[in-house]
Amino acid sequence: MGDTVTLSSEELQEAAKQHLWLHFTRMSAYNGGDVPVIVRGSGPYVYDDKGKRYLDGLAGLFVSMVGHGRTELAEAASKQASELAYFPLWSYAHPAAVQLASKLAELAPGDLNRVFFTTSGSEAVESAWKLAKAYFKQKGEWSRYKVISREWAYHGTSMGALAVTGLSSIKPDFEPLPPGGVRVPNTNFYRAPEFVSASEEEFGVWAADEIERAILREEPSSVAAVFLEPVQNSGGCFTPPPGYFQRVRSICDKYGVLLVSDEVICAFGRLGYYFGSERYGYQPDIITFAKGVTSGYSPLGGMIVRDELVEPFLTGNATFLHGITFAGHPVSSAVALANLDVFERDNILGNVRGNEAGFRATLEKLRDLPIVGDVRGAGYFYGIELVKDKNTKETFDDDESERLLRGFLSHALFDAGLICRADDRGDPVIQLSPPLICTQQHFDEMEQILRSVLTEAWSKI
Ligand SMILES: Cc1ncc(COP(=O)(O)O)c(C=O)c1O
After folding, report:
1. Which of 362, 446, 441, 434 has the alpha carbon at shortest distance from 44?
2. Three-state secondary structure of 74-86
3. Suppose 328 and one of 3, 97, 204, 423 were both cysteines; which one would form an S-S bond, judging by CB atoms 3.0 to 4.6 Å apart?
4. Which residue, by CA, sits nearest to atom 7 of ligand 1?
5. pTM of the model
6. Measured distance CA(176)–CA(371) in Å, rounded
7. Backbone phi and psi for residue 73, each to the nearest 5 degrees, phi listed first
8. Tens digit of pLDDT for each residue in 414-426?
9. Closest to 228 in 3D by CA, of 209, 256, 203, 208
């Protein structure tokens, strides 16, 4: 088959339907209609094969931080590929990975100084759990293997990462999963249990203490790590209550458990800082990252670990018996370095910090709609929870959710020119995570499209 760019729209449709397997997608949804085909991007916009423009309100999949169509990132890839397209990090180094590891160590909080590259977020989570297990074995704490994570939290799809994931609906087809995944409540204050719903601080103390209770229930000497996102994506942007992470940090210290900050979404400016843990002022033992590190111009992920965690592997014949062929790929590493240059030159973090209040205020306007129950998030990362009754916070049942989200909202928002995500993996939410170059004009565009589509959705209930 030749260059796909030369195919007509009709040929692309036919070939996509016959040969391409879309991820997490009900393929039958396209039996009677077209598969959306996105062909190019520019800034915060992308264009389909018929030339129609969409505002990329999800940055692809929480990825395109500096926006689309940056030729300097493409050129960095081309230059590196011409010089050294590939060499592994198995017993060798190459300059791009070395420089990127140094840069990430410089940006990461505290003594997070050592970088283990992967190609994706799932591999980063998988690697962090494997490191936690291997580290404790090196220290003679043989029984520590369990991981604690939060209800509904998504941490990836490989078997280990899926066992860390808190979304029970995506697991049964793949069971049995590796043992040791333990769930605790998330920080959805909108749906806080009655007895802690009076103040966010009180709710945060309870939610953090639930981690301690889980450690005690499981037996502390069996628990290796707690995996938390700075702001939990799945379920719709659950921000941490004030003091939550500080309390979790001290609980982890008390029981010798590692704190892993899964920043696959929250790093590289999503929350206005290089790392989400920086925004909320806590020191993780491991940060996992992917997505925004290259703004999607090439795939890359990894984990950044504290000095103490690598020490047992720096002497004698100790080895972390783990590796991935394409991890820290030279092209991806060079692109990540160029991406971080753009961050500095164009003051990307400053743009998020300077505009986030405007983004919030613009989305908050939607609260006057009867279907909007909550608007929550931080930085350039928001979730809008949809409800059947604002006063009682009654949510939609499965059938209604199916009709509303899959049957109407997803298509209607896309047809109206906004790419975002209508997600029903928890209570129904619309997720927004636009490129970090967006400004007020883009926030207004999102608000106007959401207002008109959500108003129509309400009339269909
Ligand atoms: C918090 C978090 N961890 C891990 C992953 C998995 O990343 P990937 O899809 O690159 O494997 C994701 C993906 O969205 C994520 O949001």
Report:
1. 434
2. HHHHHHHHHHCCC
3. 97
4. 121
5. 0.97
6. 39
7. -75, -35
8. 999 999 999 887 8
9. 208
